[in-house]
Amino acid sequence: MYIARPIGYNCHLSFPPGTPxxxxxxxxxxxxxxxxxxxxxxxxxxxxxxHDPPWQNCSWVTTSEGRAQMLGFKLECKxxxxxxxxxxxxxxxx
Length: 94
Ligand SMILES: [Zn+2]
Hints:
Number of strands: 4
Structural class: alpha+beta
Helix content: 10-25%
Mean pLDDT: 80
Strand order of the largest sheet: 3-2-1-4
Bound molecules: zinc ion
Number of helices: 2
Strand content: 15-25%
């Protein structure tokens, strides 16, 4: 069963207990052309982790410590569920 996220969710605490859809660990990050942070997932897909309150509260992504701490953390990957092709992962940032 899919449970919709409430508005203003914490993007690293967004999963209800139980078994959510496909989850993939973060293996790196880069920024897109608009300077938004993009997490690179182990499955080959990218996922935006914008810090854009109140819609998304991803303040951890704005610091290098926060990004380092979130390496290996699993995010829900809708692209896997959709069977999308892999994204480019330039992985510019540590
Ligand atoms: Zn994926």
